[in-house]
Amino acid sequence: MKYRLCRAAIAAALTALALTAFAQAQFPFEREIVLDVQPLPGSKRVPMLEIFADGRAQIDLWCRSGEGRAEVEGETIKFTLGPMQEERCTPERSERDDQLAAALAEVMRWRLEDDVVVLTGSAELRFRLSTH
Q: pLDDT digits over 31-49, tens only?
């Protein structure tokens, strides 16, 4: 009886570990993902992220760019933004940067829907896998 319970517990733990590894393997590491929005008038720039398996992240907002961290574990994700370099920016774009940075800092989960990475926290952010 003890042997069966122990075997079942080990099987459950291995299944959970495999599911976590499978979810991590599905995350599109080292691929650019682009916020699913149109560029603002007068600009071609759209926010992008590139997340590496070691946790490094390149973060390009509407005006600001920089490095940060993105810790992915199973279906959870946590962003930490580092110092950001700002290019010439209108007040509207600067405000959008602040909003997007705050939303990224509150992201807790991710899921993949076809070619879209959906990040959820206080808001839902949809990023398309880049095709270039």
A: 999 999 999 888 899 999 9
